[in-house]
């Protein structure tokens, strides 16, 4: 048998320390430290706005309402006027939702207004002139909107063309098709009401707490809630932001960027078709000349609402607030007796300030 004492082990005490353990005992246990400069108040504001993109439009909206209520007086804050503003921004809000989806992907769609008007003409011509049942004509209009979006999507994803150039071209194409199919003729509201009242449904007034709204306003809120859920609670929404922020990194992570982009353009076309339904309800008639400013108004609402034209940043709530800002300023300036020319001037200033502010906020992540 082996003698335990001769082996150098101590059975009654702790085991002998090995050589590598003796080296570890002499190691430096200090942790690396980095000097972090304290943030200035302006930098804190910058980081807050970067983390909360809807903060600026919400503040601007609040200041606008407060300012015009002081300038104009009780007329601005009356329930009738406030409900009128909401009705006026319904179309801008719906088309702005479609534009937001495109802008998040670092694109821009100049054809949203033309798609909306073309779909309204298709719905009106089929239902009123050709006698197609209104619900079926409505579905055909939705299909046309989705088809127009698919054309944009194919040109952007397959041919790798810039979205700005693609949609500038399709804007002209869709507008020309609109004039050709409608023969530049307007379908009167009386004819629409007689043959297809379903198409005017979103323009039906409803009184709530003494204020008059339309079903179109509630439809806008429902659409906002649906798209907000998709963007914030689904994988598709996360993929959308990832593609807009860095398409190369998104593709390396396994996201099918082409499929995401194509789906976004199709969805935008369908939303524009829903905007066409709301447009018919708003004006009552079907006019090929309606919605002339829809493109600019949608971009205005998106940019003022805090979305970045460089992609990867934006929200549906911000777009809704942006549309309300446009409506509040135009309505308040009109009640103040300001000429329409200077109303557009003010909206242009708001756009430039919003883009400049976005550039400043983006420096946080630079």
Description:
This protein has 366 residues and is mainly alpha-helical. It has one domain (92-358): ABC transporter involved in vitamin B12 uptake, BtuC (Orthogonal Bundle), CATH 1.10.3470. It is 69% helix and 2% strand. The protein contains 17 helices and 2 strands. A two-stranded antiparallel sheet has the order 1-2. Helix 7 packs parallel to helix 9, helix 15 (294-304) packs across helix 16 (316-335) and helix 16 runs antiparallel to helix 17 (340-362). The longest helix is centred in the last third of the chain and has 27 residues, at 257-283. The protein is globular, with a radius of gyration of 29 Å. The chain starts with 18 loop residues before the first helix and ends with a helix. InterPro entries: ABC_transp_permease (IPR001851). It is a multi-pass membrane protein. Keywords: Cell membrane, Membrane, Transmembrane, Transmembrane helix.
Fold topology:
Layout: H1 19-25, H2 41-51, H3 55-72, H4 74-77, H5 79-88, H6 90-104, H7 112-129, H8 134-157, H9 163-182, H10 189-195, E1 205-208, E2 211-214, H11 215-233, H12 235-245, H13 247-252, H14 257-283, H15 294-304, H16 316-335, H17 340-362
Helix pairs in contact: 3-16, 6-11, 6-14, 6-15, 6-16, 7-8, 7-9, 7-14, 8-9, 8-14, 11-12, 12-14, 15-16, 16-17
Organism: Ancylobacter defluvii
Transmembrane segments: 55-77, 89-116, 136-156, 163-181, 213-231, 260-280, 300-329, 341-361
Protein name: ABC transporter permease
């Amino acid at each position: 048998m082996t003698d335990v004492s001769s082996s150098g082990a101590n059975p009654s005490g702790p085991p002998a320390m090995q050589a590598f353990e003796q080296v570890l005992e002499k190691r430096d246990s200090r942790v690396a430290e980095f000097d972090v400069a304290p943030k200035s108040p302006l930098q804190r504001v910058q980081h807050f706005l970067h983390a909360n993109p809807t903060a600026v439009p919400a503040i601007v909206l609040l200041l606008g309402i407060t300012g015009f209520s002081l300038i104009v007086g009780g007329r601005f804050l009356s329930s009738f006027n406030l409900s009128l503003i909401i009705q006026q921004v319904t179309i801008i809000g719906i088309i702005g939702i479609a534009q937001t989806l495109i802008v998040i992907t670092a694109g821009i769609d100049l054809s949203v207004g033309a798609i909306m008007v073309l779909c309204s003409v298709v719905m009106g011509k089929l239902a009123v002139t050709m006698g197609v049942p209104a619900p079926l004509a409505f579905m055909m209009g939705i299909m046309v909107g989705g088809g127009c979006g698919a054309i944009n999507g194919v040109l952007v994803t397959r041919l790798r063309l810039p979205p700005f150039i693609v949609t500038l071209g399709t804007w002209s194409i869709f507008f020309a098709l609109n004039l050709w199919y409608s023969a530049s003729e307007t379908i009167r509201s009386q004819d629409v009401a007689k043959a297809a009242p379903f198409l005017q449904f979103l323009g039906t007034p409803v009184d709530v707490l003494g204020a008059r709204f339309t079903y179109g306003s509630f439809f806008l809120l429902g659409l906002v809630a649906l798209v907000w859920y998709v963007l914030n609670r689904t994988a598709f929404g996360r993929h959308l932001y990832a593609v807009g922020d860095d398409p190369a990194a998104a593709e390396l992570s396994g996201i099918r960027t082409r499929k995401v982009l194509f789906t976004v353009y199709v969805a935008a076309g369908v939303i524009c078709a829903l905007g066409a339904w709301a447009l018919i309800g708003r004006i009552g008639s079907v006019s090929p000349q309606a919605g002339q400013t829809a493109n600019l108004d949608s971009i205005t609402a998106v940019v003022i609402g805090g979305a970045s034209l460089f992609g990867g940043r934006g929200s549906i709530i911000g777009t809704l607030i942006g549309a309300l800002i446009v409506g509040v300023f135009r309505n308040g300036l009109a009640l103040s007796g300001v000429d329409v020319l200077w109303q557009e001037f003010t909206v242009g200033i708001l756009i430039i300030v919003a883009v400049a502010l976005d550039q400043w906020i983006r420096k946080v992540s630079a």
